[in-house]
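Why should sequence recovery work at all? Because a backbone constrains its sequence more than one might expect. Tight turns favour small or flexible residues, buried strands favour hydrophobic ones, and helices have their own preferences. The token representation captures these environments compactly. In the example below, the structure is given first.
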């Protein structure tokens, strides 16, 4: 085993990661500060609810994902600093005739205090709050002089989104996305520094930096998509508002003609014509109502399509966060043959911290995507779209899913061990717990359940050699 470490490469990596850590935290602060004043921008009418809900989930997930990136960059920086210190301590321990390796100071008690040791660079932590909800209305956008006519249209509500704030939010997300994407250059600088050292832990450290870089790029891409979705939503609202205004203006123009005819009839009939003109105007309002409701229906459909794309973005960010989760639990190892070691580990499945399930949402695993946080309506929709399944189910949220799955794994630990040692293919575990695991929905009824099903697949890239392919409350 060859080791050739002078520390300069480690220091380069430390400083690059510290720069990325601080810049990421600053971009996150800028984002949350800008979004804090943009609550209630999506509207609160029937056309906006779906988009507002999807945006709220996705924006909170992206903000949390950026917080995870801050943590991951700090983690990698500390690991790199610790590894450098271990190398310097090992070198300083090899003292011959009072000569000590330069760059390290041996204290009287024999401890080594390397120059620029771990912690010197001031690593930044982040605990971001989710952005305010997008649900809310801007009724000042109703055109002056037309509101009273719009109020006569039964079943129609003016699209109440704040278009200006939507466009501001869109620009904010796009600016943030570009800034975050640039952070990959800090990871690249760290990699170049590490590649200048020769030690067994360097390939793992390089891979870890590249992993963080990849997830920074992935989250930046979804932040950009969220910005574009806000802009597209604003465009749709403006376009459909213009259609409604055109219909109302046409109605008013025709009404003026009718009222003019009413005045003429009134002079001849002594007032009877006014009643007829007013009734005829009411008839016209009723006549254009289907056209205006059709405009609203098209807007709602367009917004639902846009909301679906935003929900998909949220799932992709959740997957990226899962890949960053291990850095929250990372620690540096001890010396081995004078080599600094970097290990990125996570607790075992039955002793994990919050968020561990996200690390399994890779390579086709889909517990969170399909079986967490779904409403009864969501599950019924799945049954309609998949006639081949007899029921659909959902955990209430990610923590509930993690608790149920972890408990099932503890209960069936021997089965998992036997499968790993001798089995092949997938392993399906069934367990009945003491507490409710979630809700199941059939085509005729729905109810809560205490059962859970967990399906495992072999995966040598996971620390335990397996991955949760799917898990859900069982009938």
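From this structural description, the recovered sequence reads:
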């Amino acid at each position: 085993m060859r080791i050739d470490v002078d520390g300069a490469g480690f220091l380069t990596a430390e400083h690059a990661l510290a720069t990325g850590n601080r810049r990421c935290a600053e971009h996150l602060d800028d984002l949350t500060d800008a979004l804090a004043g943009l609550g209630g921008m999506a509207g609160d009418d029937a056309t906006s609810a779906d988009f507002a809900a999807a945006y709220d989930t996705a924006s909170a997930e992206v903000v949390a994902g950026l917080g995870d990136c801050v943590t991951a960059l700090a983690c990698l920086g500390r690991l790199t600093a610790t590894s450098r210190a271990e190398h310097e301590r090992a070198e300083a321990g090899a003292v011959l005739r009072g000569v000590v390796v330069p760059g390290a100071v041996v204290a009287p008690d024999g401890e080594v205090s390397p120059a620029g040791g771990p912690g010197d660079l001031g690593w930044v932590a982040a605990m971001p709050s989710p952005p305010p909800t997008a649900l809310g209305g801007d009724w000042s956008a109703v055109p002056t002089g037309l509101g009273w006519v719009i109020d006569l249209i039964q079943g129609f509500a003016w699209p109440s989104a704040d278009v200006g704030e939507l466009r501001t939010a869109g620009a904010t997300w796009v600016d943030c996305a570009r800034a975050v994407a640039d952070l990959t250059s800090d990871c690249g600088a760290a990699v170049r520094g590490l590649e200048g050292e020769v030690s067994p832990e360097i390939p793992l450290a390089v891979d870890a930096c590249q992993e963080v870089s990849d997830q920074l790029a992935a989250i930046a891409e979804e932040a950009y998509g969220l910005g574009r979705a806000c802009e597209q939503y604003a465009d749709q609202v403006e376009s459909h508002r213009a259609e409604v205004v055109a219909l109302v203006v046409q109605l008013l123009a025709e009404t003026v003609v009718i009222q003019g005819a009413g005045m003429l009839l009134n002079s001849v009939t002594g007032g009877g014509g006014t009643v007829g003109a007013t009734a005829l105007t009411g008839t016209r309002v009723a006549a254009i109502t289907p056209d205006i409701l059709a405009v609203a229906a098209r807007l709602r459909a367009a917004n639902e399509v846009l909301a679906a794309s935003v929900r998909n973005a949220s799932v992709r960010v959740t997957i990226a966060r899962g890949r960053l989760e291990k850095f929250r639990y990372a620690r540096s190892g001890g010396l081995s043959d004078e080599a600094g070691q970097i290990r990125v580990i996570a607790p075992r499945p039955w002793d994990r911290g919050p968020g561990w399930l996200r690390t399994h949402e890779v390579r086709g695993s889909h517990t969170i995507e399909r079986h967490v946080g779904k409403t009864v309506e969501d599950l019924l929709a799945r049954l309609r779209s998949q006639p081949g399944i007899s029921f659909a189910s959902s955990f209430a949220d990610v923590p509930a899913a993690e608790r149920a799955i972890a408990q099932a794994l503890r209960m069936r630990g021997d089965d998992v061990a036997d499968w790993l040692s001798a089995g092949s293919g997938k392993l399906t575990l069934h367990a009945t717990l003491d507490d409710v695991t979630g809700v199941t929905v059939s085509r005729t009824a729905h109810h809560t359940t205490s059962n859970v099903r967990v399906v495992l697949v072999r995966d040598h890239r996971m620390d335990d050699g397996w991955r949760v392919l799917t898990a859900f409350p069982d009938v």
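A few observations help interpret the result. Residues 95-119, 258-280, 332-340, 345-349 have pLDDT under 50 and may be disordered.
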